[in-house]
Amino acid sequence: MIDLHTHLLWDWDDGPDDRRQALEMARIAERDGIKVIALTPHVYRLTRHNGDLGILRQRMIEFHDAMAEAGVEIEFHWGAEVAVHAELVRTVERYRFTLDSTSYVFIEFPSDLVPPGSSNMVYSLMSKGFVPIISHPERNKGFVSHPELLYEFISMGCAAQVTAMSLTGEFGKETRNAAGLFLAHNLVHIIASDAHTPDARPPLLRKAVAAAARIVGEAKAAAMVTEIPRAILDNGALPDWGEPENPARRRTWAQKLPLLGQKRR
Q1: Helices 118-127 + 147-156 axis angle, to 10
Q2: How many CB atoms lie within 10 A of CB 212?
Q3: Which of 47, 99, 143, 222 gives a 20 to 30 Å CA spacing to 63?
């Protein structure tokens, strides 16, 4: 499995405090069957050291050396989780906070809303050649209250990531219901742990994949931690696992009938 969104880098954001905790998280991931991890530290929010990007670079080097020294058998990749702010487009373009050298970049909206004008900002980012991956929309009050907003972004060409613990209920019933709604309407593409600590928020995926399978089937649930994140790391197009549907749109009973001869993947 591939965990595309994690905070394993120590002493940078609200993730682990030290090397010991980071190594413990890596061992947890190994036991869960995770073979590939992308580190996506926060930038422009929740950072330590006044957000000094030079220190971020140093922590990356230290992390790589520590995992190699400990014999951790995980394929690591680098990215970032960029807070949505007024200078989002300029900073992504300047520093290329993408997953490795791909066009994909995680963006995180404020937890309580989707700011007005965000679609214009995202469109501008995409016009520069970037593909935004919206972090955990099921934990955003704006998207939960108005799921048609997420539908708009996905229809524009964005991807979205649902958090494993949202699917398994650790963030509460409302968040779990939102995660299920977004899954059922093809509005999220990736399951990732968004791990922060070894105890409260560990890097685990297997249980969440099983929960997702009850909604979208085993094949698609598995693809959300294998085929789809691998395509992103390879800078390829998102595999087609269903067109996005607007949850706010009511379909008539006739529209719900299967098309004659329609094949399901």
Answers
A1: 20
A2: 26
A3: 222
Residue 47: band (very low, low, confident or very high) from pLDDT cuts 50, 70, 90: confident
**Which of 15, 16, 19 shows the shortest CA–CA distance to 63?**
19
Q: Determine if the pTM surpasses 0.90.
A: yes
Q: How many CB atoms lie under 10 A from the CB of residue 96? A: 14
* Cα torsion 194, 203, 37, 9: sign: positive
Is the separation of the CB atoms in 11 and 18 below 8 Å?
A: yes
Q: What is the C-alpha separation between 88 and 35, in angstroms, rounded? A: 31
- Non-local CB neighbours of 114 within 8 Å, separated by 6+ positions: 140, 142, 143, 146, 149
Question: What's the half-sphere exposure (Cβ side, CA atoms, 13 Å) at 125?
Answer: 33
CA–CA distance, 187 with 191 (Å, rounded to integer): 12
- Find out whether 130 and 102 touch, Cβ atoms under 8 Å: no
Give the separation between CA 104 and CA 132, rounded to whole angstroms: 6
Strand order of the β-sheet with 42-43 is 42-43, 81-83, 104-108, 131-135, 159-163, 190-192
Q: What are the tens digits of pLDDT across the range 192-207?
A: 999 999 999 999 999 9
The residue to which tokens 């709604």 are assigned: 181
Closest listed residue to residue 78, CA positions, set 159, 7, 162: 7
Closest CA relative to residue 152, chosen from 255, 248, 236: 248
